[in-house]
Write a structure and sequence with these properties.
Chain lengths: 309, 94, 252
């Protein structure tokens, strides 16, 4: 069981300072532990809820190849949610509890999954933009200070490398396809661009949890720095396939070498996080329904194990 | 209280002859299910030749508070390492 | 009927079973009773969809004329789809999913074992690969049969219901028509009489050990071999084929 007393604070501080990983049985400040549980479970919930918008298109995938890729990708997301729940469980919180927190709205998940996947091009856009943004964030988290979280991220990054590529491939194919396909691709980019940029969280100036997270080396780069990294890469990729980034103010700053973009609508971000996005209710309802429908199966398995093991 | 079934730790052998390495954990109600779940969760990319699962509750782990008495006494036994010994110049290694 | 025609038809049937059951299982993604089982069902769906592709690719090659596996999947109408009706039955609850998988995988295992000795090399190749997957599907399903049968009163009741409801779709698995006969004589197709003699006691014993009553062998549904289905199939196809039919000029 993890140690939750903050007594040997020096041990913790020294480890963090040296850049060593904190391990489950190490002493750690209660606040560090709580911060991690919040962040890791939120990350896990995002993977799990993120299965839904893409899952919406599995039965309509337009080729056997596309269907298998999409299935494998969504399955990976389930797997990644599972790795993350495992990492959080090393901190002394059970999966039951985390699920309950998600379903009662106490725990959050990434706001981006509250937007609907309307056309097949959205599957491309989600892979390209949403997974692209996730990768930028996750690459940083491979060096996060909590060992089980860092190790889960290493595994996740390795597995996710195909996710962004498959999305970009769909977009490239559609952008080079019939006029209707091209329109669909552009429309999907238009709708997913801003939500994807918001995945990095509020601007550094407003970021609520950042300060301590830096100190503890949970977070290693700022929201805005990560967002900029993503923008620079993605704008270039959009150009290659001939799609237009939906931002009239987008321009390359020759001095910095970075792209500058319009301010994002953070009111919308907070509104969606607070439960008022296009699909919030349906995402949680789906999760609750599946969870309730599965209860008798879990009970049967547990009962069987009780009798025969 | 809802059940998500028991927690099992998963160890994967990546190739025959290699040691089993801790990969993560799964939930399962019994051994067969734990093995199958470990297979579906941790070997989706053909990265395994063997799997162990063990109930997390059955693992005994060393206590951090005991680290001093457990591990430190081994630190000064440098004569257990080959570099402790001086070999006459020119002699070949076995 | 030439041997080539019969073989083409046979590949379509094998492919359609894998395609349609795989599609049903794909519908379960993000709907598992717990996360690990969600991933397990998706794995089975992936195995079956991959296998369907191999059967259809073979069928497409047999037909010639530049046909593709996707062409056979996404442009064939309802009446030219030949899966067994069992495969298209809906995911009513987890018990139905497991019952369907058990009844089908147990059948498929014997079928594939038989096809491993077929005189047709390409079928042997596909069957050898598929057999390994199917043995796992069967193991997974049968473990659940015991858990559900001996777990709780509710799990037992639900599973018995699922078995009773799906049983009338099992007779069709062993139907033989001209295509089958033709290929059986040529040493290509599996011998369904033998398979039935293996399947029946295996299932009976398992159900008995798991505490279930053997469902009654009265009315049996039929029609898959002729492309006559339950009403479920049309809805599955209308989703599956929607994009390809809505944008016939497009490639994806």
């Amino acid at each position: 069981m993890p140690t939750t007393t903050s007594a040997p604070d020096d041990f913790f501080t020294a480890k963090i300072k040296r850049g060593d990983n904190i391990e489950p049985r190490d002493p750690m400040p209660e606040e560090y532990r709580r911060h991690l549980i919040r962040q890791i479970s939120q990350h896990a919930h995002s993977e799990i809820i993120g299965m839904q918008p893409e899952g919406n298109w599995i039965t309509r995938a337009p080729s056997l190849r596309a269907k298998m890729i999409l299935l494998a990708k969504i399955q990976d997301e389930g797997g990644h949610g599972l790795y993350l729940y495992s990492a959080a469980e090393t901190l002394g919180v059970g999966r039951e509890e985390m699920i309950e927190q998600l379903q009662t709205g106490k725990a959050r998940y990434s706001s981006v999954f509250n937007y609907p996947a309307l056309t097949w091009a959205d599957i491309g856009a989600i892979g390209w933009l949403v997974d692209g943004a996730a990768i930028v964030n996750q690459v940083m988290l491979q060096r996060t200070s909590y060992g089980p979280y860092a190790r889960a991220m290493v595994r996740i990054c390795k597995e996710e490398s195909f996710h962004q590529r498959q999305g970009y491939e769909i977009m490239a194919k559609m952008a080079a396809g019939t006029p209707e396909q091209r329109d669909m691709a552009q429309d999907a980019l238009n709708r997913w661009w801003a939500p994807a940029l918001m995945m990095f969280g509020p601007p550094d100036a407003e970021s609520l949890h950042s300060k301590k997270a830096f100190l503890w080396k949970i977070k290693r780069e700022s929201n805005d720095a990560l967002r900029q990294k993503f923008i620079d890469k993605t704008v270039q990729q959009a150009e290659v396939i001939g799609l237009k980034i939906p931002d009239p103010e987008l321009r390359l700053n020759a001095e910095t070498g970075h792209y500058e973009t319009s301010p994002l609508n953070w009111e919308e971000f907070h509104r969606v996080i607070d439960g008022y996005g296009p699909c919030n209710r349906q995402r949680l309802e789906h999760h609750r329904r599946v969870h309730e429908e599965g209860a008798w199966v879990r009970e049967a398995a547990a009962a069987y194990a009780g009798k025969f093991n | 209280m809802d059940t998500q079934l028991a927690l099992w730790e998963v160890f994967v052998q990546s190739k025959p002859g290699q040691p089993y390495k801790h990969a993560g954990s799964v939930h399962a109600s019994d051994k067969q299910m734990a093995l199958q779940n470990a297979r579906d969760v941790y070997t989706r990319r053909g990265e395994a030749s063997g799997l162990w699962v063990v109930r997390a509750a059955d693992i005994a782990a060393s206590d951090l508070a005991d680290s001093d008495m457990f591990f430190e006494p081994a630190n000064d036994k440098i004569y257990r390492h080959p570099t402790f010994y001086e070999i006459p110049a020119g002699a070949k290694n076995i | 009927m030439t041997k080539q025609d019969a073989l083409f038809q046979y590949c379509l049937r094998l492919g359609d079973d894998a395609l349609i059951l795989g599609h049903r299982l794909a519908e379960l993604c993000s709907r598992g009773p717990f996360l690990e089982e969600d991933l397990a069902q998706t794995n089975i769906a992936l195995d079956l969809t991959g296998r369907a592709q191999l059967y259809f690719q073979y069928a497409a090659d047999l037909e010639g004329r530049g046909q593709t596996a996707d062409g056979l999947v996404y442009r064939r109408p309802e009446r030219q789809i030949y899966n067994h009706l069992l495969c298209e039955q809906p995911n009513t609850d987890f018990a139905y999913v497991i019952a369907r998988q058990l009844l089908f995988s147990a059948f498929d295992r014997f079928l594939l074992e038989d096809l491993c000795t077929s005189k047709d090399e390409r079928l042997v190749e596909i069957a050898a690969k598929a057999l390994k997957e199917t043995r796992y599907h069967l193991a997974h399903a049968s473990d659940w049969v015991y858990r559900l049968g001996l777990g709780t009163g509710e799990s037992h009741r639900r599973m018995q219901q699922a078995l009773n409801d799906l049983w009338p779709y099992t007779g069709e698995l062993f139907e033989i028509d001209d295509v089958g006969l033709h290929l059986l004589e040529a040493g290509i197709a599996a011998d369904l009489h033998t398979i039935r003699a293996l399947w029946t006691p295996e299932i009976r014993q398992m159900l008995q050990k798991a505490g279930f009553e053997q469902p009654a062998d009265d009315y049996m549904h039929t029609g898959g071999l002729k492309g006559i289905h339950s009403e479920h199939l049309g809805h599955m196809l209308s989703e599956m084929q929607y994009l390809v039919r809505a944008y016939p000029e497009a490639t994806w």
